[in-house]
Amino acid sequence: MSDCSSCEDYFDENARTQIESDFDSKCVLCKAHLQAGQGHFVPLLNDHRTLSACVGGLYTWVFKPYEALSGLYACQPCAHQWLKGTDDVECLAVLVPCKPLMLYALHALRIANDEASRSQTLDAIFQDLENDPSASPERRLASPFLHCYQICPVLEPCESSSDTTSLLVWPSPSTYLTHDDLGWPQTQGSNVTRYCILEPSKTSASVHMPSRTVPLYGQCGDGAVTLWRIHKRSPGLFCGLADSTSIRQDGNHELSKIFHKICFVTRFDRGLPSDYRKIGLPSSWDVFNKQY
To answer: What is the DSSP string of the chain?
Structure first.
């Protein structure tokens, strides 16, 4: 994994300005307000492994690594420890589409009945959900969680806990929702989960939450699972980045199990020919070669 310090000059000045604006000068994770020059820019697409994962899983066709839509804005601890490790130390977590959205994507792929629907990227599946959020019970269940992401631990928990495996989130507008996972991982019954969604700072949310401690492992103090709503970014890129990271299943067994199922189904179980490829895919050179 690339050293995060090498990413500081990844985006040009215009892209950095846009990324900072997209996140209202606040860290994407802990929501701390950052003064000019304090923020760090974390690319979602910065090497061929992520590109290969996106292509192999048909996650997205958004291959613009140096544009603002491929970047996150974070404080130093969140950037260097949580989101982007170094050559020697792995990051603590990756952001993945939240559990309700991943369950919906699995449903959408399961009922796909022609090549067009079977070859949809994850981006297209979620865009279709946003365009028609109430056409079915499954859509109505998932649509309130559009653009929501969840932290998935990369490493297994250590025997001793420490402050570095808990994230202190600054006061933020928030929305509380529940979601019935419809018995996952079983096939029947009910499995209701309560979620606290951290909304963008300019959003009028139902609750303005005080500071919140989010443990990397285990539940938050109020029992709700914390989600981050992040607009203007490709969920497929988040999946590609997570797919190219070695996620240990014991970090969050249930979430990682669903994510690995997404990876398997999108890559091997779409009902497409084994040699199916999208015509006109760019090469790694085409994607990462900066044009000056």
So the answer is: ---GGGGTTSS-HHHHHHHHHHTTTB-TTT--B--TTT-EEEES--SHHHHHHHHHTT------TTSGGGEEEE-HHIIIIII---SSS--SEEEEE-HHHHHHHHHHHHH--SHHHHT--HHHHHHHHHHSTTSSHHHHHHGGGTTEEEEEESSPPPSS--GGGEEEEPSEEEEEEEEE-TTTTSSSS--EEEEEEE--TTS--SEEE--EEEESSS--TTSPEEEEE--SS-HHHHHHHHHTS---TTSSHHHHHHHHHHHHHHHH-SS--TT---TTPPPHHHHH----
Confirm whether 54 is domain-assigned. yes
Q: How many CB atoms lie within 10 A of CB 5?
A: 12
Could you give the angle at the alpha carbon of 52 between the alpha carbons of 46 and 58, nearest 5°? 115
In one-letter notation, the amino acid at residue 125 is: I
CB-CB contact of 246 with 154 (8 Å): yes
Residue with tokens 């760019």: 282
Contacts of residue 280, defined as CB under 8 A and 6 or more positions apart, other chains included, come to none
Q: Per the structure block, which two tokens stand in for 244?
A: 């190219």
Q: Which domain holds residue 69?
A: 4-270
Number of domains in the chain: 1
In-domain check, residue 137:
yes
Residue 290 covered by a domain: no
Per-10-residue mean pLDDT of the chain, 292 residues long, equals 59 96 96 93 94 93 94 95 80 95 96 93 98 95 97 82 77 92 61 92 70 91 95 97 88 92 94 73 82 49
